[in-house]
Design goal:
The protein is α/β, with parallel strands linked by helices. It has a single domain, classed as Vaccinia Virus protein VP39 (Rossmann fold). It is built from 10 helices and 9 strands. It has a 7-stranded mixed β-sheet. The protein is globular, with a radius of gyration of 18 Å.
Length: 259
């Protein structure tokens, strides 16, 4: 089931607004074991120099910028884009309320509406595995970067959250199409010096409901049967009772490439 790269599904079910995305972000924020939060870590990995022009592709709810509001770049040199106009609206409103008003654009990563060599930094935060034609999108990212520009692509490794989602992963056949392992070769066809940086974290889940809400936010109705959710619920409850928490592996990070 390839709904992860189906634009109609993504726009109508996943990213027409930020509700399901926020369910997933909340699980990581509430139960992550690393006090060095993900969005702070990502920001620290990026070399954004004074005067750099920055493009985020797939900005979602604007969380990267909201979580780093104490050290934001010049807003007039920063463009946030998403193929979902609902997400653009959500991000614009949230960031405006936070006092940060960059440029915004509705944009498909496979055909960016920007001139060649416009940006010094391109950010793709957990979005390339949603793109049907990744090779075309990666070429587009390279095209809009200046020579020497940097691309930062956040994604997951093969073991990411397997204790929570592993029983259902076979119903999405494109989950690993762009991961920390499989993405390197794809970027190397268009970029130089591709580097992998992993984020050290795990989940220690102490409540059942947020974990089940996460599953329901990823898989469409009917794909995961209620009996399967009941088995997962029982496993989580048992682990919480015996160990104090249901422990879940995390394997996320950044692929960093230079034009």
């Amino acid at each position: 089931m390839a709904h992860f790269t189906d634009p109609k599904h993504l726009l109508s079910e996943q990213y027409n607004d930020d509700a399901k995305l926020n369910v997933r972000l909340a699980l990581h924020e509430r139960f992550g074991t690393n006090p060095y939060a993900w969005h702070r870590w990502v920001f620290d990995q990026m070399s954004m120099l004074p005067g750099d022009t920055v493009l985020e592709i797939g900005c979602g709810s604007g969380a990267l910028w909201l979580k780093n509001r104490d050290r934001l770049p010049e807003p007039n040199r920063c463009t946030l884009s998403d193929f979902s106009l609902g997400m653009v609206t959500t991000s614009r409103q949230a960031l405006s309320e936070a006092g940060f008003e960059p440029r915004f654009a509705g944009a498909d990563g496979q055909a960016l509406p920007f001139a060649a060599g416009t940006f010094d930094v391109v950010i793709a935060n957990h979005m390339l595995y949603h793109v049907p034609n990744r090779a075309q999108a990666i070429d587009e990212f390279r095209r809009v970067l200046r020579p020497g520009g940097r691309m930062y692509a956040a994604t997951n490794g093969r073991n990411h959250m397997h204790e929570l989602v592993g029983a259902f992963a076979d119903r999405i056949d494109d989950l690993d199409e762009f991961g920390l392992e499989s993405g390197v070769g794809q970027l190397e066809r268009s970029f130089l010096n591709v580097e992998v940086r992993r984020y050290d974290d795990a989940l220690a889940i102490t409540e059942v409901a947020p974990a089940l809400a996460y599953i329901r936010s990823v898989w469409p109705d009917g794909v995961v049967a209620e009996e399967e959710l009941d088995r997962l619920r029982a496993s989580i409850e048992s682990a919480i009772a015996s160990e104090g928490a249901y422990h879940v592996t995390k394997d996320a990070g950044l692929l960093i490439a230079t034009r």
